[in-house]
Amino acid sequence: MMKGNLYPLLPEQMTREELVNEIIFLHDYIKHCENYGEKVSHQMMDRIIKCRSQLMKIVYTVDSDEQPISKLQIKFGVIHSQIVTYWENESEPLFELSDEDQFNNDFPKKPQGRIFNACGFLAEQNKHGIIMIKKSPFYTFGDPINSNPEYASIKLQPNQHEKDLVRCYCLSPQFYDLYRIPHDIYSCETDKLVHKNKWVRITS
Q: Which of these, 81, 50, 96, 43, lies nearest to 175 by C-alpha position?
């Protein structure tokens, strides 16, 4: 017979699959509480945040060791969230907790940004509404940002003959109204044009 109390594993002790299952369970539990007007504890909210953060670390670390999809270097893409039609629907709130907040179980009421980390994407929005696309199966062209050479500002309706544009990650057509995508979208795997900019859609 087992003695003493049983404690759940810490997120950093869990495997990728265990983290996914834990996040799904916690998400369903929180949804249940919201539907029935029950209060969700700070510990529960803190745990789901830590599990998501740990899962993101695992996914990003593993994927970063793999061979890059494209033959050419692709920079991180930057775009404002107001331009991306369904970003709010698809992404999740992102909370930042200091060590003191975690110690006091003080859960912030407002998210510091939003995140989408699935299906080969890693995109984060900061509190100013700027989305930084750090990983994606798709790319477009943008202006290099002098202050940070790893990033490029996604060029809206770029001129094909415009010089100094570089490849940068972007979101897929599913994040937009298909007839209001203000930039071209290419596949990292095939380099083929997936979607032409505003008003023109490629179907084959």
A: 81
Across the strands, what pairs with 185? 195
Q: Are 11 and 19 in contact (CB under 8 A)?
A: yes
pLDDT in tens, 75-88: 999 999 999 999 99
Phi, psi values for residue 3, rounded to 5°? -105, 155
pTM for the model: 0.59
Q: How many CB atoms lie under 10 A from the CB of residue 183?
A: 23
pLDDT, average across residues 3-31? 78
Strands 130-135 and 113-116: unpaired
Spell 143-168 as b/e; 16+ CB within 10 A means b: bbeeeeeebbbbbeebeeeeeebbbb
Q: Are 57 and 51 in contact (CB under 8 A)?
A: no
Q: Which of 83, 111, 110 is nearest to 180 (CA)?
A: 83
